[in-house]
Amino acid sequence: MIVFDLQCRDGGETFEAWFRSNKDYDESLARGLLECPLCGSANVGKAPMAPSVPKKGKSDALAKLAAAQAELLKDSRWVGDEFPDTARAMYHGDLAPERVHGQATVEQAKSLAADGVPVAPLPLPVVPPDQLN
Q1: Domain span holding position 8
Q2: Does the pTM of the predicted model rise above 0.70?
Q3: pLDDT level of residue 133 (50, 70, 90 thresholds)
Q4: Residue 13, in any domain of the structure
């Protein structure tokens, strides 16, 4: 459903009308089914409408995603570009298991997954600790 503000071209009154689609509005107008609820004039058309503009800043969904990622990483150690080797070494038992995060190329990530190493991409980019302000 879509709502339009309509305006009477004779009296200037503005009123709302609901339609299934823009095509439904066009068909109703062409068939003379639209009229002003105050004066009954069929001389009506769409009134200027302000667009719906979202608030500036992070959306609630993005903020929730960022908070969830921060929670996941709070007990994780940054290993940078050593991530593929570190993850593989932990998987094979050469290093004690711990929560780590870092960087990997697409090829490295595919290789880890193909070898059965349990890794997953993070939904948002992570700034390396040495690059934080």
Answers
A1: 2-46
A2: no
A3: low
A4: yes
